[in-house]
Design brief:
Layout lengths: L3 H13 L26 H4 L4 H20 L4 E5 L5 H10 L2 E6 L4 H19 L13 E5 L8 H7 L10 E9 L1 H12 L3 E9 L14 H9 L14 H4 L8 H6 L4 H7 L3 H20 L20 H11 L8 H11 L3 H12 L2 H18 L5
Parallel strand pairs: 1-2, 1-4, 2-3, 4-5
Protein name: Methyltransferase domain-containing protein
Keywords: Signal
Organism: Capitella teleta
């Protein structure tokens, strides 16, 4: 029987968090093959796209198409477009003109190549096109970096437009990482050319945050080493409401937790490697506490691959080296940590599961902050 306090905690999280569940439209149900492929996308558009991203693209592209129709706009600017998979679907399946901008120059030639491949097979494979849609590639693939403090004039220049042009476009961002999502919202508010926005953020831990006394040491390290941090504008919090809250700050650890999904963790628990990773890390913390009690927890993130192939002793030695600590630990200390902690892996999994239950709440706070920011500037979301 669950304790009443745990039941109350669970209900409070469910009540306060935004609903993360997604129910596809009726016409999209049954569109998944046994291999996970999204059959709603034509085969030529699915090439080079992983199944998970196929589902994201098909649903987001449909939403963007509906959004552009509602504001009478036929041009979409896809920020952080990568190899142009979303823009390609918008262009070929929905007939929208698309401009993409991507910081990594290596993606531009691939995006153009994939456009041409889809164009060649579009006459044979895209069956959903109607007379008012086009099969002529109308995508411009640009290379450029969108800084958090970019001005409207600079932004339009990156898009090879000028402020005097009467051009309207919608902003789109799939997996707009870190501060990029916040930057898109700021551009939507500030740029009169932008008539709508559809953004799906990710990597909340990479957002810049307002410096306050309660910052963890790890936050300071990451902010100092970031490519660009504006001292007056931050990725979080955006809204004045949260900026004025005394407890509105989210640590790096909290923001990192916000990107997790309990269902994915449940599936990964079926892997012995994940359980081993949890157990090893918990036992290692015992060692660190004994050999370096003043070390700030969370200042350095440890990642390992193929843990099933190494012993705890090997893991501890490599981890301590990464942390800059003496890897030569007395055997009795390692043995004690191994014997006392590794068998208690169920407690570690239980604790992490409780911690993970807060993820929807943290993400909800970030999303509500963005909605409040838009509302403060007279925009709906």
């Amino acid at each position: 029987v669950w304790p009443l306090s745990l039941l109350a905690f669970r209900q409070a999280v469910f009540s306060l968090a935004l609903d993360r569940s997604f129910s596809p439209p009726a016409h999209r149900k049954g569109d998944i093959s046994t291999s996970g492929q999204c059959l709603a996308m034509e085969h030529c558009l699915r090439k080079h796209v992983k199944p998970k991203k196929q589902h994201e693209i098909i649903h987001l592209s449909e939403a963007i198409s509906d959004l552009t129709r509602s504001v009478n706009c036929d041009h979409v600017v896809d920020i952080g477009a990568g190899q142009g998979h979303l823009s390609r679907c918008l262009n070929f399946a929905y007939g929208l003109k698309v401009t993409t901008i991507e910081a990594s120059a290596c993606h531009q030639p691939k995006a153009k190549k994939f456009d041409q491949l889809v164009y060649k097979c579009s006459l044979h494979e895209i069956e959903d096109l109607t007379a008012d849609l086009t099969i002529t590639p109308e995508a411009r693939h640009l290379v450029g970096w969108i800084e958090p403090d970019i001005s409207v004039e600079e932004f339009l220049q990156r898009l090879e437009m000028n402020s005097e042009e009467e051009c309207r476009f919608a902003l789109a961002g799939l997996h707009a990482c870190g501060d990029l999502s916040a930057t898109l919202l700021k551009l939507f508010v500030a740029c009169p050319n932008v008539c709508a926005i559809a953004s799906v953020g990710c990597c909340y831990m990479k957002m810049s945050t307002q410096l306050v006394l309660s910052l963890f040491f790890s936050d300071l390290i990451r902010l100092i080493t970031m490519r660009s941090v504006n001292t007056t504008e931050f990725g979080y919090p955006l809204s004045k409401h949260l900026q004025h809250l005394p407890n509105g700050h989210l640590s790096w650890e909290a923001r990192e937790l916000g990107v997790h999904f309990a269902d994915a963790y449940h599936d990964r628990l079926l892997s012995e490697c994940l359980i081993r990773s949890h157990a090893y890390r918990a036992a290692l913390q015992e060692v660190i506490h004994l050999v370096a009690p003043s070390m700030q927890h969370g200042a350095v993130k440890l990642t390992f691959k193929n843990l099933s192939d190494i012993s705890f002793e090997q893991y501890a030695s490599q981890a301590l080296q990464k942390l800059g600590l003496d890897a030569h630990i007395p055997e009795d200390l390692l043995s004690r940590a191994k014997e006392d902690r590794l068998p208690r892996w169920r407690e570690v999994v239980g604790f992490f599961t409780l911690r993970l239950s807060l993820a929807p709440l943290i993400e909800s706070l970030i999303l509500v902050d963005r909605a409040l920011y838009l509302e403060e500037h007279g925009e709906q979301s």
